[in-house]
Design brief:
By secondary structure, this protein is of the alpha+beta class. About 45% of the residues lie in helices and about 15% in strands. The strands form two sheets. The protein has a three-stranded mixed β-sheet with strand order 3-5-4. α3 packs antiparallel against α4. It is globular, with a radius of gyration of 14 Å.
Amino acid sequence: MRIIRPNFYLIMELPRIVENSPFARLARLKLGATSVAMVLGRSIHLSGASKEQFLRDPFWVAHEMEHIRQFEQYGRLGFLVRYLRDWARHGYYNIPFEVAAREAAERDAHLYAAGLPLPSAAERHPTPKAK
């Protein structure tokens, strides 16, 4: 099921989730974070968090679903080139893809909450602010 909105679409069905991913572990070490989710194509890779922990935070899910949308828009190579280029230019926190994903998390979290109340700020996965 897809919900069409002006200038973007939101994918409602969840993709494959890979726990204990070596790719996500490298990202977690680079970011100095306790847990990381990262998107590779249509898969969400986790390190330092279980699938259950990830799915309990609809803000985090919405953030990663936005990255999947970006991957689909730009293609694997186009996304990765832009992401790494912008990381070098702006630092991790200010990568335009990350800014857009944080905005999507705020806008779309309710779509992934399964009818439950949204978690408080203290209950949410913290956004890495690393270099």
